[in-house]
Amino acid sequence: MTTQQPQLTETQKSAIEEMVINRVNAMNNDAVLCEAIDNKVHNMEEHLKAYFHERFHFHSNKA
User: Among residues 31, 38, 62, which one has the least CA distance to residue 52?
Assistant: First the structure.
């Protein structure tokens, strides 16, 4: 039996999308920013982390 994850609000999606784009853009040139974003992600609830990683995968494949 799987537990349904809470739905993300548009505000949560927007904030995560901004973090993802910043993380993708900083991958090659800003280790401090990457580390700060990774620390924020590490402290997120699991469903937010899952959405972040889904969007990160999407954007990093486009980059």
Answer: 38
